[in-house]
Amino acid sequence: MSWSNPTVNAVYEQVLRRNPGEEEFHQAITEVFDSLDVVINKHPRYADASILERVCEPERQIIFRIPWTDDEGHVRINRGFRVQFNSALGPYKGGLRFHPTVLLGTVKFLGFEQIFKNALTGLPIGGAKGGSDFDPKGRSDLEVMRFCQSFMIELHRHIGEYTDVPAGDIGVGRREIGYLFGQYKRMTNKYESGVLTGKGVAWGGSLMRTEATGYGTIFFAEQMLGVKGLSFDGASVMVSGSGNVAIYAIEKVSELGGTVVACSDSSGSIYDPDGIDLKIVRDIKETERGRIDEYVTRRGGSARFAADASVWDLAGEYRVDVAVPAATQNELDVNDAARLIDGGVKAVAEGANMPCTPDAVRAFREAGVLFAPGKAANAGGVATSALEMQQNAGRDTWDAPYTERRLAEIMANIHERCAATADEYGRPGDYVFGANVSGFTQVADAMLAFGVI
Q1: Which of 32, 34, 92, 178 is the most buried (most CB within 10 A)?
Q2: Domain 60-203 belongs to what architecture?
Q3: 403-420: per-residue pLDDT in tens?
């Protein structure tokens, strides 16, 4: 890679040298640097103060061993991570991911993205991410509890409501947050509600937190479509995944008059021309923790299952107006993008973190497809986590309609910030550029105010 500004090039080479083999982290850095080249040229104060170099280096990286005992009495060992990336705007904030693919580079890319995502919300939270290569899939509740308790024994010394506030992510839902919070409470002898978000409503959680990432992605996409005089009403939509983000994205699209015709899990994808029956998906995924192929048997009709296929493999066969990749990173490549473009897709909104490969993003932007990057489109989850922190700090609880209104307002403001920043630099409609530059400049200006930190 090469940019016009020598500082950008020098910092990029340093990142590659100091973080070898961490391809996802390199990808996240590259995507942001593509936008910041012009900013550094226009505002040399960021280069003079080495802000770019500092923002690419985590403030703290924590790696630890997690011993736990399975139901057969065997001792298992996993690795835990917490990368506290940047606290210029507030306490570190970002989820915990439990999945066998989690490595240090994974956590660093997620934490780097989280810096700018959190800045875009306009709320006082810094960027972090964490997790483990533990796989909760197929494990009993007692095994998950023992793992979470061991994980928190180490993590508790690095977090706090004014220090670092983790939340859930892939593999970390209400069950896991409960076990983590219970162990933190037990070890600290404090009922510090604000130390974790995504909690149960009865013990300090926020209404709408479960729905927030999926709803927020659709709220952002709705704003983006509205600029072009479009809407979800009558739109055919494909959503990848069938986890929390996908389920609530499907729900909100349906409320807005759209029809979600496909979703997926790691075993394959389902297509239903009559619209996905969300109750069946919820029963399979949330209650039974089953596989998505069971949908076809229960639904009948024209529903079909494509084994070992992504929803984007089906995009060439069916009309898609809006695509919502909401499964995992780099799931949608340039060939998938080509199928969607050929099929007339109008908008793509990233519900997951960096789910589109760089070539796919480039293809969408060059084709004039409205494209919402994850750091903007899926910021609703962390925004509502920050609202949960507000409620905890005030010993208060807000009702669901009020919280959803706050979420919708935050997503509208993020859209406006991205659009206005893109316009300011002569890049109208470029939400990737707008998100990167708006998030970076807010963090950079705070770092400049603090001196050399």
Answers
A1: 92
A2: 3-Layer(aba) Sandwich (3.40)
A3: 999 999 999 999 999 999
> Of the listed 117, 129, 199, 375, which one is catalytic?
129
User: What pairs with residue 80 in β-bridges?
Assistant: 64, 132
| Nearest residue to 411 via CA among 114, 129, 213, 232 | 213
What does pTM read for this prediction?
A: 0.94
Q: Where are the domains of the chain?
A: 6-55, 60-203, 212-372
φ/ψ (deg, to 5) at 261: -105, -5
| Helix (H) / strand (E) containing 53 | helix 51-55
Tell me, what's the pLDDT at 162? 96
Question: In this structure, what token pair is assigned to residue 452?
Answer: 């050399």
Tell me which residue of 9, 15, 7, 14 sits closest to 47, measured CA to CA. Answer: 7
* Whether the domain at 60-203 and the domain at 212-372 fall into the same CATH topology: yes
Verify whether residue 129 is a known catalytic residue: yes
CATH architecture of structural domain 212-372: 3-Layer(aba) Sandwich (3.40)
436 near 422, Cβ under 8 Å? Answer: no
Sign of CA dihedral 193, 198, 204, 207: positive
- 290 CB burial (10 A radius; 0-12, 13-18, 19+): middle
Placement of tokens 């483990």 in the chain: 132
Per residue in 316-358, pLDDT (tens digit) is 888 899 999 999 999 999 999 999 999 999 999 999 999 999 9
